[in-house]
Fold these 2 entries.
Entry 1:
Amino acid sequence: MSSTSKIQRVCRTIRNFPGTVSLWAATFAAAVREVVQEYVRHGARRLALYSGHAEPGQLEALREAVVPIVDADPALIVL
């Protein structure tokens, strides 16, 4: 079982601040995956993903979102 399939939200530490939106890890990973796939479809070959929170769940969701895309296209670089 991957960590994104566990019941967890990616933004836990600041979740109680007004206006904070916390997504399920699987939702966040799916959104990131779709955005990256669209950039690749438009010709992007090098991408840098940046997380301002660095929570373990968020970083793992980012990783799980892009690994299958990079594995399918060895010329693609995602940092």
Note: Confidence is low (pLDDT under 50) at residues 1-6.
Entry 2:
Amino acid sequence: MCIFKGIGSQETHVRAFKSQMNSLDIPPIRWMSIFPSSLGLNERKWFNSLEPNTVDTWDRIVLDFTREYHEDENGDKT
């Protein structure tokens, strides 16, 4: 599994994660519990700091993750 360590495109990481889950026939309902294991230590700390019960869908995880690790057109984190 590829690990996101705050460097590179968060969108690429999400696409790679989904591809890996699909290739392993893991249903989307389980992606939410597996996704944190695809994050580096600092990124996992961010994930664990999210308010309980606010991240209740896969789409919400992707939204929060891409907002937190957004890159501008130059590849710089914003």
Note: DSSP finds four helices and no strands in the chain.
